[in-house]
Design goal:
mainly beta; Jelly Rolls; 4-stranded antiparallel beta sheet; single chain; 5-stranded antiparallel beta sheet
């Protein structure tokens, strides 16, 4: 159900409060997140061009994405994600825990 790889992607949590968790993910070529299930709906914003190779437990598919491109997925998504590019790839993942609490964030900087 997961890729066989010894290179873990690096996750850096930037914000984790009651409303959201924002994580930067950095992948060396061939690096993987490891098999996981998302407990909340989430958005991804690419920081670099790259190909994300997605293993959903049954099949593997490639998504070629450009820097600045974004997408969203529902809670309950299960997968393993690999950098299918020949260069490092990075993206920001925004998990929405409590949309009712998303007003003005406590660390808002205009």
């Amino acid at each position: 159900m997961a890729f066989k790889c010894e290179i873990p992607a690096k996750s850096t949590i930037q914000i984790d409060d009651e409303a959201v968790r924002i994580t930067r993910w950095d992948f060396a070529p061939g690096a993987v997140t490891g098999w996981h299930e998302h407990g909340w709906p989430y958005f991804v914003v690419m920081l670099t061009d790259g190909t994300l190779r997605i293993h959903d437990g049954e099949k593997v598919s490639d998504a070629s994405l450009k820097a600045g491109q974004s997408y969203r997925r529902l809670a309950g998504t299960k997968h393993d994600v690999m950098n299918g590019s020949e260069h490092p790839v990075a993206f920001i993942e925004i998990e929405v825990k409590r949309p009712d609490l998303l007003k003005e964030p406590p660390n808002f900087v205009p």
